[in-house]
Amino acid sequence: MENSGKKLCPFCNAEIDNNAKKCKFCGEWVCQDEDNIPQELKHFNWGAFLMNWIWGIMHKKYITLLYFPACIIPVIGPIAISIWFGLAGNKWAWESKTWESIEQFNESQQNWVRIWIILFILGIIFAIKTIITLVYIGSVEV
Asked: Does the pLDDT at position 1 exceed 80?
């Protein structure tokens, strides 16, 4: 069968083209390699990098809780472990559940970055309001 340009889908055993990325019969992605992740997902995961341990809990990857012991080493520890999470994030997230499509997976991971941006902006607003309040309180004479 390999000689004819066809192969068997590992999920439904249907005959599909050798170059097929997705089985046209069962809809499963068949373009996976030894990492068990489609080639299109081999890129940095910003959600895992930015939201590290929270992202990890939500994807059932509790190894991300190593973020806290890494904080013992100031600056370098949290940055290094966050980079590791970003590099491994797509593989971990892909294996954490069954995704309908690569597009659904990417949308889900992009939502993590959106959440981080919203929280970052809210944090800046809170910090500015706190500073203004402290300056105002410090300038009022009793």
From this structure: no
Rounded CA-CA distance 117/82 in Å is 17
Question: Which sign, positive or negative, has the C-alpha torsion 113, 77, 75, 128?
Answer: positive
Which residues lie below 8 Å from residue 7, measured CB to CB, with a gap of 6+?
1, 15, 16, 17, 18, 20
| Helices 46-58, 102-139: crossing angle, 10 deg rounding | 90
Q: Which residues pair with 32 in a beta bridge?
A: 38
Distance (Å) of CA 61 to CA 2, 90, 97, 111, 141: 37, 12, 11, 18, 53
- Through-space distance between the first and last CA atoms of the chain, rounded to whole angstroms: 89
pLDDT in tens, 5-58: 888 888 888 899 888 878 888 877 776 555 678 888 989 999 999 999 999 999
What single DSSP character describes residue 42? -
φ, ψ (nearest 5 deg) of residue 55? -60, -45
Q: What is the pTM assigned to this prediction?
A: 0.69
Residue with tokens 């559940």: 97
Average pLDDT, the chain: 88
